[in-house]
Specification:
Layout: H1 2-8, H2 17-24, E1 32-36, H3 44-47, E2 55-59, H4 67-78, E3 84-90, H5 94-105, H6 113-127, H7 134-151, H8 156-162, E4 167-173, E5 180-183
Parallel strand pairs: 1-2, 1-3, 3-4
Antiparallel strand pairs: 4-5
Helix pairs in contact: 5-6, 6-7
The structure holds zinc ion.
Length: about 190
């Protein structure tokens, strides 16, 4: 969050990529893992003013946890000892918006895109009748549901959470300000 504060206020550190590269050839020791949307406007390393080797980033449109994403995060926790997973949603997420259009207007999408909207359907349905903006609510709900799914993912992540070696938290990135607002997982 300190890194995000630097990013929001334009006080980023100077990153020496060539020195980092040489040091990192020997190994990695990320202080956090991030499950982010693939949206090109996000850039998790930028958003937290992080360098190479700092954050273990898994990205998929709609930032949900399929088995391959869980496996990647398991690796970051079990092998690299990452103590934190952040599920990072964002304002105006196209994947969540497409899911809303499918549910509300019966829109259909080509190729493999329905596999994304299928995965995001529970989040949209959970907030469908809530007051406020449906897209904003669904983006938040998707983050919360994904946090809960990762916390409960057996055997590796759930055990690390129980042993207090791992925290799973959620946040939403604001496209205008660059600020990440943490989301309560209640
Ligand atoms: Zn998105």
């Amino acid at each position: 969050m300190e890194g995000n504060h630097r990013y929001v206020h334009g006080n980023m550190k100077r990153h020496d990529f060539s020195a980092d590269r040489a040091a990192l050839a020997k190994g990695q020791n990320p202080f956090a893992s991030i499950l982010s949307c693939a949206d090109s406007r996000i850039g998790p390393e930028y958003a937290f003013d992080a360098g190479r080797g700092d954050v273990f980033v898994c990205r998929i449109a709609g930032n949900f946890a399929n088995p391959e994403m869980i496996a990647s995060l398991e690796y970051s926790v079990a092998v690299l000892s990452s103590p934190l997973i952040l599920v990072l949603g964002h304002q105006s997420c196209g994947a969540v918006d497409s899911t809303i259009k499918q549910i509300k207007n019966g829109a259909s999408f080509p190729g493999h895109i329905p596999s994304l909207t299928e995965a995001l359907t529970p989040a949209v349905q959970a907030v469908e009748n809530q007051p406020g903006d449906l897209l904003t609510n669904a983006i938040k709900k998707n983050v919360v549901l994904t946090v809960q799914k990762l916390q409960a993912a057996e055997p590796i992540l759930s055990e690390a959470v129980n042993q207090k070696k791992l925290k799973v938290v959620g946040g939403v990135y604001d496209l205008n300000t660059g600020k990440v607002e943490l989301v309560s997982s209640e």
